[in-house]
Design goal:
mainly alpha; 7 helices; elongated; binds protoporphyrin IX containing FE
Length: 206
């Protein structure tokens, strides 16, 4: 047991949102593969995979509103926005760390605090995911769920092909994101440190 200071980094609503969201996206990706490649994959009947996909999709949407409500009502949403005046310098340092310094045992240039828990690369990535990609995926998913009911909106946005292309492209993004995100999450002071922190709320300060 180390004697490092413990800091409370992930409040309960963030943890609940995160694991509901993670389970939902894993299910969506698995059933998405089954729906998209039904001719060559046979993990479960198509009808069941569509039902499960819809169920997980609405779960992810509900969890998203928990995330949004928590971060907006506490004003903590600010942690997702990088400071433009220091962004480039900090991004260069962070890229050097991930590409080189980390293999030489150098310290992470970003020091995590509850008010500033993400490094600038995380801020940029999470900002894009939570404010652009995930909303676009949720909206296009709802449109594809009831094509007839939302035909006016679908038409307004360029037609069903455009909506379907967005949904499939972002599906590939989320499938790849899961791999990269899980790898990056192992880069704490021990491989499981960030996973434990997302479960307990506490991260060891090094
Ligand atoms: C099996 C799937 C997943 C695992 C094991 C996992 C693991 C983790 C871990 C350990 C952290 C804390 C370290 C960090 O901040 O990077 C984290 C944070 C985060 N993850 Fe995931 N994740 C998963 C899926 C996802 C998915 C699908 C998304 C988004 C679509 C996501 C979005 C985020 C965000 C935005 C944070 C920062 C949350 C905050 O502190 O406000 N994660 N994840």
């Amino acid at each position: 047991m180390s004697h490092e200071k413990l800091i409370y980094i992930h409040p309960a609503p963030v943890r609940v949102w995160h694991w509901l969201n993670a389970a939902g996206i894993v299910l969506l990706v698995a059933t998405g593969f089954q729906i998209r490649y039904a001719e060559i994959l046979n993990l479960m009947p198509l009808k069941d995979s569509v039902s499960l996909h819809n169920f997980a999709g609405f779960g992810v949407i509900a969890a998203y509103f928990l995330w949004l409500f928590y971060y907006l009502s506490t004003g903590k949403i600010i942690i997702y926005f990088p400071d433009p005046s220091t962004f480039v310098a900090k991004a260069v340092k962070q890229v050097k760390f991930y590409g080189y310094g980390i293999f030489r045992g150098e310290p992470n240039p970003h020091v995590m605090t509850p008010e500033n828990k993400f490094n600038v690369l995380q801020q940029k990535a999470y900002l894009g995911i939570m404010f652009v990609l995930l909303p676009a995926q949720m909206i296009s998913g709802v449109f594809l769920w009831k094509v007839k009911g939302y035909s006016d909106y679908i038409h307004l946005l360029g037609g069903i092909r455009i909506i379907d292309t967005i949904h499939v492209l972002f599906f590939f993004f989320f499938a790849s994101f899961l791999v990269v995100h899980c790898y990056l999450a192992t880069l704490g002071h021990t491989p499981l440190a960030h996973f434990k922190a997302m479960l307990t709320g506490y991260e060891e300060h090094h």
